[in-house]
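Hi all, long-time lurker, first post. I run a small reading group and we've been trying to get comfortable going from sequence to structure in the token notation. Rather than ask abstract questions, I figured I'd post a concrete chain and ask someone more experienced to write out its structure so we can walk through it together at our next meeting. Sequence below, copied exactly:
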Amino acid sequence: MMKPFNLILFVVIFCCTALSFSIPYQQSYKKMIVGKWQPVLSTSEGIEANGNRTVKNYRLSNKDLMQFNADGSIIDSGQLYFSYALDPDDKILSLFDGGNYERKFDIDQLDKTTMKIVMRETDKYNGEPFQIIWTIVFKRK
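-- Answer (accepted) --
Happy to help. Here is the structure in token form:
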């Protein structure tokens, strides 16, 4: 009677152990974003309806920092943003300025060392659609 029980117990423990190794360790985005981040790349790309592209790279300083706090506030060296909201299911980061104007960014990458956010908008330019893609890459400080 003990042999079948021991066999079942062994199989259950083996399966649980195997599953724990196959599931990669991931912290939640809400915990992962907390801390100081330094922007290392900031580019914007404009794409006209006819396909013409304009790319602009922004100068960054070692003094540029954004500190994301667990309470949803931000300490931004550029004093542009004062709070944020994070939707980890849809991978969206919303940044708010002092007047609660919201800029929504898709989170393309967020891990222990790197965060890459991308904002995609479509405006009108001379009556034609004009796509804007703004990419910012941060390294953890």
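A couple of things your group might point at:
The mean pLDDT is 82.
The two ends are 59 Å apart (CA to CA).
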